[in-house]
Design goal:
Elements: E1 3-7, H1 12-23, E2 28-32, H2 37-46, E3 53-56, E4 59-62, H3 64-93, H4 98-120, H5 131-143, H6 150-153, H7 157-165
Parallel strand pairs: 1-2
Antiparallel strand pairs: 1-3, 3-4
Helix pairs in contact: 1-3, 5-7
Bound molecules: glutathione (GSH).
Residues 8, 11-13, 39, 49-52, 63-65 line the site of glutathione.
């Protein structure tokens, strides 16, 4: 997919679209238009004066709301298709068998206890963060995107550390997607 985003420097609706493209993983080129020439250029290219405008494989969409709507339309089926073909490969690469999952779920509460103990002992959670913080906090933060296991971390020191060092994190898998049940929180 070839995308070209037409912007004016500092425009907030243009920032909206740029971020949406990044979040959806759509590579794009930015064309910065010099005001006030943008008005004539945009009108000729998109039929309206304002930026942003987006060219997507030849299709032209103007205005941040219309662009985000169009990106959603295009990307929902693509994401489903991609997930269908990627998931089995990823599963093999990560040796994600039901047995491995069962073992991981069984061991997870002990791992979280260990992280909490390290935080309590000052091994983790200091300022500035150390190398171990930067290894462990993102692992906990990633786990927190899995609704089935999030309760195991909720309210724990490990959760606070993960959120403090990595407040923003992509992804959210709703509870109920794992083929096995996670252990109940202690
Ligand atoms: N609601 C529109 C707002 C677009 C808009 O006002 N863009 C400004 C830049 S922030 C613009 O093109 N201003 C120049 C002009 O009005 O000619 C959208 O979200 O796309």
């Amino acid at each position: 997919m070839e995308a070209r985003l037409y912007v004016v420097h500092g425009s907030h609706p243009c920032a909206t679209v740029a971020r949406a493209l990044e979040l959806k993983g759509v590579p794009y080129r930015t064309v910065e238009l010099p005001p006030p020439l943008h008005a004539a250029i945009q009108r000729a290219r998109f039929g309206a004066r304002t930026v942003p405008g987006l060219r997507l494989d030849g299709e032209r969409v103007q205005g941040s709301r219309a662009i985000l709507r169009r990106l959603d339309e295009l990307h929902r089926p693509l994401a489903v298709l991609a997930a269908r073909s990627m998931a089995p490969v990823q599963r093999r690469l990560n040796r994600a068998t039901d047995n491995a999952l069962a073992a991981d779920l069984r061991d997870l509460p002990a791992h979280i206890d260990l992280v909490d103990a390290w935080i309590a002992d000052g091994v983790l959670g200091g300022e500035p963060p150390n190398a171990a913080d930067l290894q462990i906090a993102p692992s906990v933060r990633l786990l927190m995107t899995i609704g089935d296991v999030r309760p195991l971390v909720a309210g724990r020191r490990a959760e606070e550390l993960a959120l403090r060092l990595f407040p923003d994190w992509p992804g959210d898998a709703p509870a109920g997607i794992l083929p096995l049940r996670a252990p109940a929180p202690a």
